[in-house]
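Course assignment 3, question 2. Fill in each field.
Student: A.L.
Task: Predict the tertiary structure for the chain below.
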Amino acid sequence: MTKHLNFRDYQNQKKTLMLSCDCGWKGYATEAFNDYYEEVMDFECPKCDKMLLIVNLIADT
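Answer field:
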């Protein structure tokens, strides 16, 4: 299942945030492939390209 975080929580956890995938890959979010868009940043498994994390870049109101 894809994990969702707001940007503030991601910033607080990014050095220790672990992700895992159904294909068996496990690692830090910084080791996953990521793409930046205007409103979100997403992280994909480097082994199978499955979406693992979506970070909302829009400020909390």
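Instructor remarks: Residues 7-13 form the longest helix (7 residues). The mean pLDDT is 91.
Grade: pending
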